[in-house]
Amino acid sequence: MTDAYRTVADRAEARFEVQGSEFIGYISPAETVEAAEAFIDEIEARHPDATHNVPAYRVPAGAASSSVPGGGNVMLREYQSDDGEPTGSSGKPALNVLVQQDVRNVVVVVTRYYGGTNLGVGGLARAYSRAVKEALDAAGIVEEIPHERFTATVEYDDSGDVRGILESTGVEFDADYDQHVSFSVRVPIDDADGLRDRLRSATSGRVEIE
């Protein structure tokens, strides 16, 4: 059994004020660096007038790792930025909460609207840490079994059999009906080889898997 890992159940946010400054902590699951960066861009676009949008994430690093997010041997990329706040006052405290809570495949952005009172490095560190902790609490921490992704492409004649197998096993998938039918599948790592074998058997080897 591949090791389970801790992550967040869903997107969430938490907001509060400290001496006039408003802090909003946003959190989301993310299985790749690209997904984490896209979430950061989304929050920055939502709050272009914010004084700071401080990001931090812990996600699988590189293409090889992202195909099996959360796997026991996967290298994690840990990233944070102070986004103009004093060095070490915001991004690092935000990331430290994720490390201390042992959550991964997760991205946070803490938005701050300055309220006119300087909080100092210690005050900022406490506020940014609190924003991440409260967002984590709002999202809920869950244990996730590592998954991998693959694409199965077949002709229309075989698509019903492939879809039936995917539905019967309860895996997550998206189907794209074009010249051929492509199924993008997300499956627990421990079940992936068996599922690929079933698809090959059901289509007499006609399925293309990548």
By DSSP, the count of extended strands is: 11
* Parts with pLDDT < 50 across at least 5 consecutive residues: none
Shape: elongated
Strand order of the largest sheet: 2-3-6-4-5
Q: What's the number of domains?
A: 2
CATH superfamily of the largest domain: Impact, N-terminal domain
CATH topology of the largest domain: Ribosomal Protein S5, domain 2
Strand content: 25-35%
Structural class: alpha+beta
As a whole number of angstroms, the C-alpha radius of gyration is 21 Å
Considering DSSP H and I runs of 4 or more, what fraction of the residues is helical?
A: 25-40%
In whole angstroms, the N-to-C terminal distance is 23 Å
Mean of pLDDT: 91
Series of H and E elements: EEEHEHEHEHEEHEEHE
The largest sheet, given as strand count, sense and whether it forms a barrel, is: 5 strands, antiparallel
Number of helices: 6
Return the CATH architecture of the largest domain.
2-Layer Sandwich
GO biological process, one term: regulation of translational initiation
Family: Belongs to the IMPACT family.
Protein name: DUF1949 domain-containing protein
